[in-house]
Design a protein that fits this description.
The chain is of the alpha/beta class. The protein is 46% helix and 11% strand. A hairpin with a 4-residue loop joins strand 7 and strand 8. The longest helix is centred in the middle third of the chain and has 20 residues. The structure holds nicotinamide-adenine-dinucleotide and zinc ion. This is Iron-containing alcohol dehydrogenase.
Length: 358
């Protein structure tokens, strides 16, 4: 097919307090007494004021998702096995948290109906069956995981998503009230994932008018929030939530670029989290994205954010080679960033030199 025909999220609700409508939203999706499973970011484990708002019915269950490490295929398989052993069937999975928890919800939903390990489906369009009903409720804004057709997983041999038409959520609930307590550094790192998605999409060779219109809007919102506003407020939470959505829509029809290609290597080897990893890399990418990096540095300074430095110091040749292998494996990202002849431009030596600067 010449043009990508991509699947979008089924239903979207946006607004302060929209989370209170979850009960009504879920009601028609309940199948007999099969439970709804709530995957909740472990940050909310000891927050009864929050968990008390979940519309739990008799057999429903809350599973706190440990996001100390970003999602692994083994964790997905484990939760799927536990749910199948305990309930057989479930009505659906509601993922409430940042990108990691939302990705866990997507992945476990898919693995409830597809046999084997999640690792068997890392790639493009490998899943055979739609998953169970799934809902995404972001409590951090930036990744675009709420709208994307992937769920990013680290497996035994690679870090790669389950990309498919079955992957997008059936429903998302965008309630800016849920992001208001996010810690300043984390909020910034995740927001910069969105900013970087926009720059990589807008500067990429895959760009078309569809991607551009979403990318420009998301970029403009990020600039307004991080460069113009005198201080953080409710309006900033609302705008950042929509920037994340639009940033995700922008890359749906294009691709990310150098920062993501390089940060995937870091994350595979060192377990560096996605948001901060992208910031560590983007900070050093002036040769690829001069204007974006300049503006990024201004945002970092204005918000007093610390970007970790020298994280690859002391790594062995073998370790550098592993990161380079992971990164070089992401051909579409490099092609989007540098064009069809990217292999001529990005040698292993050039990439090694870049990793050494991080
Ligand atoms: P995250 O989900 O990894 O969470 C980061 C930290 O913030 C965790 O400690 C979490 O407990 C905490 N947290 C979450 N919500 C909070 C809140 N409201 N208040 C306080 N703390 C809160 O962070 P992220 O940056 O949103 O997501 C990164 C993940 O998203 C990675 O696993 C990455 O691979 C994935 N990702 C997926 C896509 C996609 O399209 N599927 C795109 C980009 C990134
Ligand atoms: Zn990203």
């Amino acid at each position: 097919m010449k043009f990508r025909n991509f699947k979008l999220v089924g239903y979207v609700i946006f607004g302060r307090g929209a989370f209170n409508q979850l009960d009504e939203i879920l009601a028609p999706q309940r199948k007999g007494d099969a439970p709804m499973i709530f995957f909740v970011d472990h940050f909310f484990r000891d927050k009864p004021a929050f968990t008390g708002r979940l519309p739990l019915q008799v057999k429903d269950k809350i599973v706190f998702i440990d996001v100390t490490h970003e999602p692994k295929t083994s964790y997905v398989d484990q939760l799927r096995d536990e749910l199948q052993a305990e309930f057989g069937q479930v009505s659906g999975i509601v993922g409430i948290g940042g990108g990691s928890t939302m990705d866990m919800a997507k992945a476990v939903s898919l693995m409830m109906t597809n046999p084997g390990s999640a690792a068997d489906y890392q790639g493009w369009d490998l899943l055979k069956h739609p998953g169970v009903y799934k809902v995404g409720v972001p409590t951090l804004s930036g990744t675009g995981a709420e709208v994307s057709r992937t769920t990013v997983l680290t497996g035994p041999t690679k870090k790669l998503g389950l990309n498919s038409d079955f992957t997008p959520f059936d429903q998302i609930v965008l309630d800016p009230e849920l992001v208001k307590d996010a810690p300043v550094n984390q909020r910034f790192y995740t927001a910069m994932d969105c900013y970087i998605h926009c720059v990589e999409s807008l500067e990429g060779t895959y760009l078309n008018a569809f991607s551009r219109s979403y990318g420009e809007k998301a970029l403009e919102l990020c600039q307004e929030i991080f460069l113009k506003k005198p201080h953080w407020d409710d309006d900033a939470d609302e705008k950042l939530m929509m920037a994340s959505y639009a940033g995700g829509m922008s890359i749906a029809y294009s691709q990310v670029g150098v920062a993501h290609a390089v940060s995937y290597g870091l994350s595979y080897l060192l377990g560096t989290h996605h948001g901060v990893g992208n910031c560590i890399v983007f900070d050093k990418l002036e040769e690829f994205y001069p204007q974006g990096v300049l503006e990024f540095k201004e945002m970092v300074a204005r918000h007093n954010i610390t970007i970790p430095q020298h994280i690859t110091k002391g790594l062995s040749d073998e370790q550098f080679n592993k990161m380079i292998d992971v990164s070089m494996g992401l051909a579409p990202l490099w092609e989007n960033a540098l064009g069809k002849d990217w292999q001529q431009q990005m040698s292993r030596e050039r990439l090694r030199a870049l990793y050494e600067r991080l």
